[in-house]
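Morning F.,

Quick status update on the modeling queue. The single chain you submitted on Monday has been processed. Sequence for confirmation:
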Amino acid sequence: MNSTSRRYDIDWLRVIAIFLLLIYHIAIVFQPWGVFIGFMQNNEPLTGLWTTMAMVNIWRIPLLFFVSGMGVCFAMRKRNWKQLIAERTQRILIPFIFGVLVIVPLHILIWLSYYNQEPAYTLTIGHLWFLGNIFAYVLLLMPLFYYLKHKPEGIIQRLLTKLFKYPLSIILVIIPFILETVIVNPEIFTMYAYSWHGFFLGLLAFLFGYLFIYCGSTFWDTILKWRWTYLLAAITLFVVRYRVYDLEAPGYLLAIESIIWIYSLFGLAYRYLNHPGKTLSYLSKAAYPVYIIHMVYLYLASLVILPLELPAIVKFLLINLATFLVCYVTYELVIKRIPFIGMLFGVNSSSQLFTIIPWKKIKIANHASS
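Structure tokens below.
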């Protein structure tokens, strides 16, 4: 495949990861510990959901960081470093600031209301920590990315091309993730938010995501060939975690399982999802706005549905339906159609941004994948 062509499978992976993130957050409402991490909690838990949640949780956030790094690699092919930072400021930093000032305090107010507490304006990054990390990674890694952009066939590219020809060599990528887990030693591997573990794990995933695209087709050809082997290995590791460790395996095993799951997803998506479509085009544009706003509607739906005398599974399904439906209606009728609102969610063109903010206007080309 031409390395400059758009990678629809990567767009799909981003959409799927955010879709799973929403479901995961809704599932927390039905866990007995949900209230302790700031979620509204149903009186009747659905503890059976936890096995699936635990399987997904070790790779869903790292996958988003990998995909975000890949998007930057595609974007840099048509931008210089100033243009890229300007574009990421519009798409990431401005929505992050707006979300911290408006969206997060709003869903916290709903939580306070549900638990009959005094209303207060609370300034915290909430679920938007992911966007803050992404923007930080762009700034931190920009010198390296700038160097690689101007060395398209340099020693690093040649070394990676040779390395990724062999499936066992690809496994070497796991070593930095194991070292990160051992050195940082997080109390909970999946506690990515507000932690150095989450920051450094995300930084590694973002960097390798960039490198997987930078090195050309070699990595993807190998992933494609061995996709079923990786999937079998990931399932085996999960079974071991479930049967031997009761889902609480040591961090280094979780790091290995996480990356193997992600490799299998890369291979499967590359084989089966790398094609365009209207559905993908729509969902890809809506993904980050829906991610930013979903907690407000999740909490509103919980506020209305949790007090009802219904079985827990019915409440879970209703909150899912309501959250997804209202998020996409808001995107379609408000965010997508009102330019200023769209700018706050990073969905409008850069020219609109620079007519509102008095920065030096920078012409930005259409990106290949982001």
